[in-house]
Amino acid sequence: MCSIGWQAGVVSTQSGAVPALFTAAVERGNFTLRRARKGDLPQILALLADDQLGATRESADDLSPYERAFDAIDADPSHLLVVGELDGDVVATFQLSYIPGLSRKGSWRAQIEAVRVSEVSRGQGCGCAHDPMGY
Fold it and tell me: Over the Cα atoms of the chain, what is R_g?
């Protein structure tokens, strides 16, 4: 179980700002989760490429395939691409997909994937803030 204080549903009052889905006080400042914008793609790609597997399969040389994928994710209400900001800098990302199922009387489930926290932000509570229940 994480021992940070968090609050879901905090919405920014800044004009043109993307509403926060979640905020938490972490060791290095304020961590906020929000819906990703297309302009976040370079930072998201850097996060995806910052591991052994991603370093060989991700490339920011041509953003067009990532932009197409972003548009498809963003247009589908069953998918949510999220970024985490630490005092305004994108330091984390994940994708949440809601999937219908027949089991459990047709219940829906959520799948989380592509979870990344920047190397410099690891150990600061940002990953814990991704999952405030500590699972």
Answer: 15
